TrEMBL record:
Basic and acidic residues: compositionally biased ranges: 214-227, 605-620
UniProt-annotated stretches for the region Disordered: 203-234, 268-293, 576-621
InterPro entries: WH-like_DNA-bd_sf, WH_DNA-bd_sf
Species, as recorded: Cryobacterium melibiosiphilum
Name recorded for this polypeptide: Uncharacterized protein
Compositionally biased tracts (Basic residues): 275-286
Length: 636
């Protein structure tokens, strides 16, 4: 173009790259300030720049995308570094594919924008495929603007922000956007590569994000997947993601905070807890206090995700994509109905619990790829942060109301099987010989499935905390707290509509959250605090550790039940019929090769010969069933 991009002003660049002849601008309030992050007014692209911040739409009037902007959000201190790592990881993929791009720090808040100019424009379908795969790969990516060809917009490089900062170019040259060098075919290839690299739905199936150090060994036993993440050199292409995978696998293996703190000193994959991404291609050491606090926060989060994924059975690849497509459609429709019919699920405390149990069942359905899923009452309770009695009552009410149905009852050590009633999606049958609704293409299907799984995980884990138990602030407070992940800010009225409760009740809950500094005042209402203070609030209220105590209690109840089931099976069988290996409903307690020999201790009995379940529970609590406590079993 004959002009160096270094001499372009932000408005000069906007005039050259804007796909339309108008941009959207912010409007000052009566006091002359910019309080609301909205761009309601159109401003014609001409010689004079607007006096307030502006954004350019990414697609032209024909809804073909001329620009792509990947927006990595940074709403909390932890999210800032995650956004930077996600941005760097995407930038690395683009470099591999030789796709020219520009990386910007969007504002003083630390968010990132990655810009791509498209030659000739790309269809909304191509861009949507890229957006969905990128969203499934990078958790901090806000891909909404890439799914909106009509009005999707972003502030261009150099444009001012309402906080007084500007969008600053960190890597690349602005003239790349004016040159429009990327082709739609390259975007299609990008979607394929992102689809191949996106993380698995479960941490046990994820792969390291970079080469591993084969000489590294952890000080405690860990799964093969966890060993791989721990050994990833320098944290791989995405150190913050790798570090969290290390914590998640450690939490699933029963490690403690002290164990992960010890591993963080030397494990290559936990580089994120030793050094900090500067955002300019280098890392600097963290202070000891910062590293300790970040590790503690991330460990608490990892424990929540581990509790959510612990009941999942072994993963199996779906054999029937038509069935999986129906499941994904049903769950997507269910979440939509829960959102638009909030009043049904918010008018009572019981209804709020029923909604959570319904979402937990939907989560199990998505993860297993089966309509009927085995779900014990205790597993659902631990996944949702509710008590087992509340979970059982919710299941029966949902079944009576026609939302779910029990396919098979509980049998010995096997949990009951439940399935969502398939009234959430309309099944139109067939038109002649062809189905009216053809299954989605596999790439789109798996991307949508991953997006739905992440959405439900966020809803469940945000409220899966000691603070939001009944003895704490309550389950509804957890629902409101989870909403602040989906919405940057909420007013009392908007929160009440989303929850389906009265404004008065909502105001009371918000005041409690504000009291413990979980939310802060925002220009558009209330917003989540940048620091996660849920554990501090739980400690103040005296409910810290309540869910852990509940989990241990339910585990003990399961052991007693499995013990009794094994004992009962022995009682009603002849010696030749008795199991030669651990009973299917119990954990292996001993290894015995002699036919007919029991592999568990004798169940305690009262003086009249009846089973003494109270004594059995005491033995379980004392660790008698641990194989290493064999010498203690003479009394049993």
């Amino acid at each position: 173009m004959g002009v160096s991009s270094d001499r372009w002003t932000a408005w000069d660049l906007t005039r050259r790259i804007s796909p339309r002849d108008q941009v959207r601008v912010m409007v000052r309030e009566a006091d002359g300030q910019l309080h609301i992050n909205q761009y309601p007014r159109l401003f014609r692209v001409g010689p004079d720049a607007p006096t307030t911040p502006w954004c350019i739409r990414l697609a032209d009037a024909a809804h073909n995308f001329r620009l792509l902007c990947f927006d990595f959000d940074a709403k909390t201190p932890d999210a800032v570094e995650n956004a930077v790592d996600d941005c760097d990881a995407l930038s690395g993929v683009l470099d591999e594919l030789l796709i020219a791009h520009v990386v910007c720090q969007s504002s003083a808040g630390g968010g990132r924008h990655v810009w791509i100019g498209v030659a000739g424009g790309a269809s909304a379908a191509i861009v949507a495929a890229v957006a969905r795969e990128a969203h499934a790969t990078y958790e901090t990516l806000d891909h909404g603007m890439l799914l909106n060809p009509a009005e999707g917009a972003a502030r261009p490089p150099g444009a001012p922000h309402r906080d007084g900062s500007t969008s600053t170019v960190l890597r690349g040259r602005a003239d790349v956007l004016a040159a429009l060098t990327t082709t739609p075919g390259e975007l299609e290839r990008l979607a394929v590569v992102l689809g191949e690299r996106k993380p698995a739905l479960r941490h046990v199936d994820t792969r390291p994000s970079g080469p591993v150090d084969g000489s590294h060994r952890t000080h405690r036993d860990l799964s093969k997947t966890g060993e791989g993440h721990m050994s990833t050199i320098d944290g791989g292409s995405n150190p913050s993601w790798t570090a969290f995978m290390c914590l998640l696998t450690a939490a699933s293996a029963g490690w403690t905070l002290g164990d992960v703190a010890h591993a963080a000193k030397t494990a290559p994959g936990m580089e994120h807890f030793r050094t900090k991404n500067t955002g300019r291609g280098s890392r600097r050491p963290r202070s000891a206090g910062e590293a300790r606090d970040r590790l503690a926060r991330q460990w608490a989060k990892a424990q929540q995700y581990a509790a959510l994924q612990r009941p999942l059975p072994a993963a199996q690849e779906p054999q029937d994509l038509t069935e999986l497509s129906a499941i994904v459609t049903d769950v997507d429709d269910l979440l939509t109905r829960l959102r638009v019919n909030a009043g049904r699920w918010g008018r009572t405390e019981a209804a709020i619990s029923q909604r959570t149990i319904l979402i937990a069942l939907a989560y199990l359905t998505l993860q297993t790829g089966k309509h009927a899923v085995a779900a014990s009452i205790r597993d659902l309770a631990l996944m949702s942060g509710l008590g087992r009695t509340t979970a059982a009552t919710a299941l029966h009410v949902l079944a009576e109301a026609g939302f779910i149905q029990r396919v098979r009852g509980a049998d010995g050590g096997n949990a009951a099987e439940w399935e969502l009633i398939r009234k959430f999606s309309t099944i139109p049958g067939t038109v002649r010989s062809q189905p009216f609704n053809n299954p989605r293409p596999p790439t789109e299907l798996f991307a949508l499935r991953a997006e739905l799984v992440r959405t439900i995980e966020h809803q469940l884990t945000d409220q899966l905390h000691d603070l939001f138990t009944r003895k704490g602030l309550g389950h509804l407070a957890g629902r409101i707290y989870a909403l602040f992940r989906e919405h940057a800010a909420l007013t009392i009225d908007s929160a009440a509509r989303l929850l389906g409760v009265s404004s008065r009740h909502t105001a009371m809950i918000l005041s409690r959250l504000r009291q413990y500094r979980l939310i802060v005042k925002h220009s558009e209402g209330w917003a989540r605090s940048r620091r996660d203070l849920r554990t501090v609030a739980a400690r103040v209220l005296g409910v810290e550790g309540l869910l852990e105590v509940r989990r241990d209690a339910y585990g003990a109840e399961r052991e007693v039940w499995a013990w009794w089931q094994a004992e009962y099976a022995t009682m009603i069988s002849t010696p030749r019929q008795r199991p030669r290996r651990p009973h299917v409903s119990s954990r292996p307690l001993f290894e015995a090769s002699t036919p007919g020999e029991r592999v568990w201790p004798r169940y305690p009995r009262s003086p009249d010969g009846r089973a003494d379940h109270r004594q059995a529970r005491e033995y379980v609590d004392d660790g008698v069933l641990n194989p290493q406590s064999r010498w203690q079993l003479s009394a049993a």
